[in-house]
Amino acid sequence: MTLGLYDSERRYRRRVWTGFVKFLLFILFVLGVGLFAYQMGIEQLKGRDAGLRDEVTQLARQKGELELYVGQLRDIAHTAETRAGELEKQLAREVPRGDLALMTQAAAERLAAGIAPDRLAFIISSAQNRRNCQQPETKRLQPSTPIYKSPNRSVGFAGGTITVVGDGQSARDGAGDSEGWFDPTAPLTLRITPQDGKETVITGVLPLHQSVVVDNTEFRFTAAAGARSFIEITSDRCAYP
Known about the structure:
The chain has 241 residues and is α+β, with helices and mostly antiparallel strands. The protein has helices at residues 2-94, 99-112, 117-126, and strands spanning 137-141, 154-157, 162-167, 170-172, 178-182, 188-194, 200-204, 208-214, 217-225, 231-239. It has a 4-stranded antiparallel sheet, with no helix packed on it. A 4-stranded antiparallel sheet has the order 2-3-6-7, with no helix packed on it. A two-stranded antiparallel sheet has the order 4-5.
């Protein structure tokens, strides 16, 4: 009876110690897993921190490079702005304006037309405000219109060696119907033709001005509105140049 009780107590103690050892092993396993996870977390944090440090270093380097590039762009922009200002001043000094621009354009057109440069230079150097001119000659011209063929649509100057022909637009009455005479407020076309010379055509609203050179004489024509249905054409005849 005593032996059975002893065996029971021994088995009970064995079960208790076995359970305690199992529990201890479980605690050690949990601690091991926790320690391993903690260590892994520490390593990941270290790796992430190192990556962030590298990224910060790279961004700082890129920032420095961008600042240097921006500085270079500012220098280039400043240089370009300074150069543009210099070119603008140079352009203002060298490009003709006003009357000089008109003279330059006229000279370029004459050169393009085949006038020799020395001839053109001689004409310009010989020009003067005081000119050798004859008494102006004024004549009346009645322009033709689309509905009226005027018999007086042409006049002659310089003894008939220069002919001026005029064509205009029909005037209209209050109802809008065309009338026989020309409209002095509408564009007018004049054809100036020297004898054995090239015809010059001008179109515009009166008054009109045109110069024609024949041999060594310049004819300067001025057309202005006269009495109804007529225009007054004046020819100044001056030595050229």
